[in-house]
Recover the amino acids of this structure.
């Protein structure tokens, strides 16, 4: 599963990227919209969801011509036609209306631009999920993004950003993936790469790509991501590995497993230091930018790990049993496996 590292423009800090996810929203009010960091490939989201979430800053809906203009100027490798996500408690008729407007825009974008489009899918129940995926397929798309998709259980899962891991959300992903698979459509899921665990669950489900700015936001909030695990908060005092002490100013306890993971980190920051967990931890703890580079490297490394198992699902499953199967999100991993195995029961009974 391709990982696109999320980015927001920063005047002082410019990170070089291979695959980066940025948003029209960051350039919407700029006179001269342009990307000021280096990258190899750019996926530019349309900003619809950010506008919805921060509608204090944007009182009006995004202007579709402006969105398209910015996309045309920046020329990303992939972009999303302006869509109209659902909000919690939105009445059904309005969801249907939003999807109609989304379809109009998809057609408009197809007719008036040469951009490589990854249209957003929205659905309010299982039937509309089938119908709307079929519509996208009939309109010649083979790569789509998962927008607001109400799960088979009817729970609302419409929000982008870092998705909260839940069984019902896993359920809507797997259902969408299974239906899209029947039509040969590949799926991008926004904000599913904030931790190695979420990334691997998405990869195991067979999604084509995801993104997340979690590596950076976690760094800013004092968190260090450990390979094949989640993040650890670095706190104010020194870390204590594997040997829990009371008091003594030690406020971060890390397991022996955590130690091994940090000592095995091959990122450019950790590589400057000996393979000593305490030293590495301390070095990362003191600077958010070091954590940003480290965190980003860890997630991008997970992508390489997943790729090694691309042709061997059984080995990948064993590997994940051994890693995330022993983590705090074990229940989510167990649920994902069960849900994938029971595909035929869910659909044909
Ligand atoms: Zn590192």
């Amino acid at each position: 599963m391709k990982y696109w590292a999320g980015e927001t423009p920063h005047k002082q800090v410019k990170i070089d990227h291979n695959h980066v996810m940025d948003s029209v929203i960051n350039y919407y009010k700029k006179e001269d919209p342009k990307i000021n960091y280096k990258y190899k490939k750019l996926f530019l989201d349309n900003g619809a969801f950010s506008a919805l979430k921060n509608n204090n800053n944007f009182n009006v809906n995004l202007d579709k011509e402006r969105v398209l203009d910015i996309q045309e100027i920046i020329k990303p490798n992939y972009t999303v036609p302006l869509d109209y996500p659902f909000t919690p408690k939105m009445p059904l008729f309005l969801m249907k209306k939003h999807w109609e407007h989304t379809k109009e825009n998809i057609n408009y974008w197809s007719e008036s631009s040469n951009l490589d489009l990854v249209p957003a899918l929205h659905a309010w129940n299982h039937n509309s999920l089938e119908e709307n995926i079929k519509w996208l397929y009939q309109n010649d798309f083979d790569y789509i993004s998962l927008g607001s998709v109400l799960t088979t259980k009817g729970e609302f899962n419409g929000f982008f950003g870092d998705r909260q891991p839940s069984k019902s959300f896993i359920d809507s992903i797997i259902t969408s993936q299974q239906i899209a698979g029947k039509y040969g459509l590949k799926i991008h899921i926004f904000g599913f790469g904030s931790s190695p665990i979420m990334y691997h669950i998405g990869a195991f489900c067979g999604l084509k790509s995801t993104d997340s700015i979690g590596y950076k936001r976690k760094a800013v909030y004092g968190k260090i991501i450990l390979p094949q695990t989640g993040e650890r908060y670095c706190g104010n005092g020194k870390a204590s590995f594997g040997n829990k002490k009371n008091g003594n100013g030690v406020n971060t306890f890390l397991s022996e497993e955590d130690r091994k993971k940090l000592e095995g980190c091959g990122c450019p920051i950790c590589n400057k230091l000996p393979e000593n967990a305490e030293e590495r931890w301390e070095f990362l703890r003191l600077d958010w930018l070091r954590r940003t580079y480290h965190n980003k490297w860890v997630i991008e490394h997970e992508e390489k790990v997943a790729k090694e198992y691309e042709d061997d699902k059984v080995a990948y499953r064993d590997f994940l049993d051994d890693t995330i199967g022993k983590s705090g999100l074990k229940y989510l991993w167990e649920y994902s496996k069960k849900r994938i195995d029971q595909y035929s029961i869910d659909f044909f009974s």
